[in-house]
Amino acid sequence: xxxxxxxxxxxxxxxxxxxxxxxxxxxxxxxxxxxxxxxxxxxxxxxxxxxxxxxxxxxxxxxxxxxxxxxx
Length: 72
Hints:
The chain has 72 residues and is α+β, with helices and mostly antiparallel strands. It has 3 helices and 3 strands. It has one domain (3-71).
């Protein structure tokens, strides 16, 4: 899978989260990732690094400001 395809797939995931008011329950987050071809453990990449796209708030997965920008 090319880097361009990987970025577009990530953008689509983030856009779908944005369309749902920027937050999903953890179970819905996992289901969304699987639907887009991610392994559940692979979704951790959205939360890591210096500039994460997502963050956890209890049982909720929430877009960061940067995640909102990347979803556009």
